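Sanity check

After download, print the first record. It should look like this:
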Amino acid sequence: MGSARTVKRRHRFHAALAVLAVAGVVAGCGGSDENAKFGKAFGPVSVELRTVMTSVGQAVAARPTDTQMASEFAGFATRLATVKAHIDALKPPSSLRTLVRSLSAAVGRLSADMRFIAAAARSHQPAAARAATVALVRDSQAASGAGRAIARKTGTKVTP
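Expected structure tokens:
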């Protein structure tokens, strides 16, 4: 399987990804009628994003082989690209445009991070996987922050 050092790195990698899985878009309250109307369209997209990120945590918890991880993370990248397209198709009111653009950009970066992790797993490069995981955590925080702000301003209730 690998040296003790490699196994330890893999465990740290898996632990970091598990932490990522608990980050998500959470519910908020308040906002104007226009924002509330937008929130109805945003809710399903928010749930879609949370579902993908929960799947990431479940995949990592299963301790996949590098080959399995490469395949799963390539799939997550594709799913996140679809979520980004759904975000981009939303028509936010002017008061939310900047937040929606921030969320879209962060989800785009998450998709890229997933592709980098898949490539690192496929080529058995733990250093590249660690770097991509650090970026993934950072970009997940950005997506989560933007999603929470949108939910708060629209009154969107998002359940796990």
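If your output differs, re-run the checksum step. Summary of this record's structure: Residues 42 and 158 are 10 Å apart (CA to CA).
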